[in-house]
Amino acid sequence: ELNPCRYHFYLCLLFFFAAYDSLGKIQSRNRRGIFELAGVVKCSTGRSAISYIRYGCYCGLGGRGWPRDAVDWCCFKHDCCYSKAEQAGCQPKTGHYYWECNDKSAVCDSEDECQEIMCKCDSKAAKCFAKAPYNSKYIFWPDFKCGEREPKCKD
């Protein structure tokens, strides 16, 4: 069951990504706050980041249990990448970086090590999404179906 605070958070994210998509194009050099991932996903997959907000057990805010499919594994690995970035002293959820969309691929154009790490995390996730089949049955997958067993991040 989705509590009211989480509902409003997802509603705000949905609104932001809808507005982001309505811009209609991705500029050649992007810097958009915590939402660079949305642009990188759109560049690499052609799909709106909205599609991944509550997909499976790991896409969106938080994550638990066992990933349901290849897309969910992409999200799990992205979470691991962000954790490593945080361990390196970076702030991947609030940090900014520059990138360019070139032939359906995000090219990092960053100014420091943290920006490079964050961009690579997002770029790898987007490439992973592009390769993985999208299964609509995992949209709004309930947390209780994710189970207790969790994979470990690789070093």
From TrEMBL:
It holds the Pfam family Phospholip_A2_1. Gene3D superfamilies: Phospholipase A2 domain. Its main location: secreted. Keywords: Calcium, Disulfide bond, Hydrolase, Lipid metabolism, Membrane, Metal-binding, Secreted, Transmembrane, Transmembrane helix. GO terms for cellular component: acrosomal vesicle; extracellular space. GO terms for biological process: arachidonate secretion; axon guidance; cellular response to leukemia inhibitory factor; cholesterol homeostasis; defense response to virus; erythrocyte maturation; fertilization; intestinal stem cell homeostasis. Its cofactor is Ca(2+). Binds 1 Ca(2+) ion per subunit. Ca(2+) binds at Y58, G60, G62, D79. Residues 33-147 form the Phospholipase A2-like central domain. It is an enzyme of class 3 (hydrolase). Its EC number is 3.1.1.4. It is found in: Secreted. The active site is at H78, D122. The chain crosses the membrane at residues 6-23. Disulfide bonds join C57-C146, C59-C75, C74-C128, C80-C153, C81-C121, C90-C114, C108-C119. The keyword Cell inner membrane does not apply. InterPro entries: PLA2, PLA2-like_dom, PLA2_histidine, PLipase_A2_dom_sf. Belongs to the phospholipase A2 family. This is Phospholipase A2. It comes from Crocodylus porosus.
